[in-house]
Amino acid sequence: MTQIRPFSKLKKQIGILFVPELKMELCCISYPVRSQYRGSSIPRFYIRLDKKYIWDFPKDFPIKEINYHYWKDNTIISELIRQYIDTPLKVLPEKEFELEQNCGVHKYIAESVEDELPAFNLHLTELLKAADRRIGKRNF
To answer: What's residue 128's pLDDT?
Structure first.
């Protein structure tokens, strides 16, 4: 597993790649959840385009139906962003990211509920590529 940096650093690195005129922002909020035994948190990642929410995880995805206690790890989005940033520019437009596919998400939930999760794609890197000032219109 990749070492994950604090989200604020990822946010800064990915934000630099966006076309400034888009006013696009990738954000993360962590909601604290306390229980009798220990505290944890549920991350919410979202993209705003000029103050309008255009992508929201886990809200807009089937994983929200699974109790957060069954999530083994909350780093899937951070790992995906890190992979996107680290991908060489010449292969980026055609690259498909495994973490974005359903097979990538399943490693983050408990085996006991794995069959309950329908197949889905995050479609995050499509948005990142569309806003990436390094790629440009000619590649799409």
So the answer is: 96
